[in-house]
Design goal:
Strand content: 15-25%
Number of domains: 1
Number of helices: 6
Number of strands: 11
Shape: globular
Order of helices and strands: EEHEHEEEHEHEEEEHH
Radius of gyration: 22 Å
Distance between the termini: 60 Å
Length: 277
């Protein structure tokens, strides 16, 4: 696994700074990680029902001032995600055919169905649902039966998190169809925890976590290792407790300390080219 092949680790007090990046640096790297993790889940562990959470890159025209980089929502993301999913399926399937078949399942929900066939036999085909949501429970059940037990079905960037999302009366059914059968194949997720930028990465078979610190211009961008690799997805409480341990000063306090020692950013280097005589 990439995160375990750490070239060097720098110790800064109680903080472990990972010198070799834990998180994929580019969308291409993320796709590579996803393919490798899914192949391990399918070929080495024999799992056929998998979740895939992919952090879709922002549009090239995105600026730091954009409140919503995807104003068109899933409809705007769909063609980008479709290309990403196609690349992943071609990488996962053994000796894939030239084309990936796809169709829109629900235009209003932006849900699509993809199949990548293998020239080695139907059992090596891999199917995927893009952006499945709570309204696609019937569809997931039907496609699951159609795919069969021998072939793999992937839920790409599902739009639900827990049985309660499906509403009253569907708890047992969605648990039977989805939550009792699917497990993680790959995930790259980001969240805010105690004001810190936290990244979670699942590569079969372990979850890894780090906090991103880039407030200090001299130190540059750092990945602060949080929890040790583990089989279960870290909870918010576990991450918060670890952040309190390795980064006791909150982000606002660290920025305030930097401003006191170096001055505010707009003041730094302000005297360059100024005649003080």
């Amino acid at each position: 696994m990439n995160a375990l092949l750490i070239c060097s680790i720098l110790l800064c007090g109680t903080v472990t700074v990972i010198n070799a990046l834990l998180i994929p640096a580019t969308p291409e790297k993320q796709t590579q990680f996803a393919i490798e993790s899914l192949r391990n889940a399918i070929q080495k562990e024999g799992r056929r029902r998998l979740y895939l959470d992919y952090l879709i890159p922002l549009p090239p025209e995105t600026s730091a001032a954009d409140i919503d980089p995807w104003p068109g929502g899933l409809a705007q993301q769909y063609p980008v995600a479709s290309d990403i999913l196609t690349d992943i399926l071609k990488g996962v399937v053994e000796e894939p055919t030239d084309s990936t078949s796809s169709q829109v399942i629900s235009a209003s929900d932006c849900c699509g169905f993809f199949i990548q066939e293998s020239t080695t036999g139907a059992k090596n085909d891999v199917a995927a649902l893009l952006f499945p949501g709570v309204d696609q429970l019937d569809t997931i059940e039907d496609i699951d039966k159609m795919v069969g037990e021998e072939r793999t079905l992937i839920l790409f960037n599902k739009q639900f998190q827990r049985p309660a999302d499906f509403g009253f009366g569907n708890k047992e059914r969605c648990e039977k169809v989805i939550f009792d059968r699917f497990s993680w194949g790959f995930a790259f997720q980001e969240l805010a925890c105690r004001g810190e930028d936290v990244k979670l990465l699942y590569e079969t078979p372990l979850w890894q976590s780090c906090a991103i610190c880039d407030e200090d211009e001299d130190l540059g961008r750092r990945e602060i290792e949080l929890l040790q690799p583990q089989k279960l997805r870290p909870t918010y409480e576990e991450l918060e407790m670890k952040i309190n341990e390795v980064l006791p000063e909150p982000l606002w306090m660290r920025k305030m300390g930097e401003a006191q020692s170096k001055g505010f950013k707009f003041q730094r280097g302000g005297s360059k080219g100024v005649d003080e005589s």
